[in-house]
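Thread: "does anyone have the structure for this chain?"

Original post by V.I.:
We have the sequence but no experimental structure in hand. Need at least a predicted one for the grant figures.
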Amino acid sequence: MTVGFATPLQRTVQPTHSGPDGITARITVDADEQVFRGHYPGFPIFPGVCLVECVHHAAHTRPPAPGRPVLTAVESVRFLSPVFPGDEVSVELTWKLKAGSWKAYAAVSTARGKSAQIRLAYEFEAAGAETAGEATKSVVLEETS
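Reply from O.Q.:
Generated one for you, tokens below.
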């Protein structure tokens, strides 16, 4: 599935493995990423919001339900260690259906270890939903045991 994003990332997240409940994806953080210009000059650190964006991109590579995933909430973010230029970032994402909402649980890491734990919530836009500017429909999902 090809999805267009308005994003601060210059590269796309590349899926490397997918299974029945999740996906592994990677992205290499280049030193010329535009976000480093202001974060922080002289000591560049990949912004945490960009790690959340990496997880969001990974979620789109293998959605667990039909339709287009629509982010409804950033439920939890815990930053554990910095990501620097040149790091390869790995996203280990697992999908779970909880209380009628799909959750993307992600462990984000580099060669130095875990960088973040992130949980995002999604609904799925039904196939054939109206275009932007008009009302959209969501797929109602029921939790199974």
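V.I.: this helps a lot. The chain is about 10% helix and 40% strand.
O.Q.: and Helices lie at 48-61.
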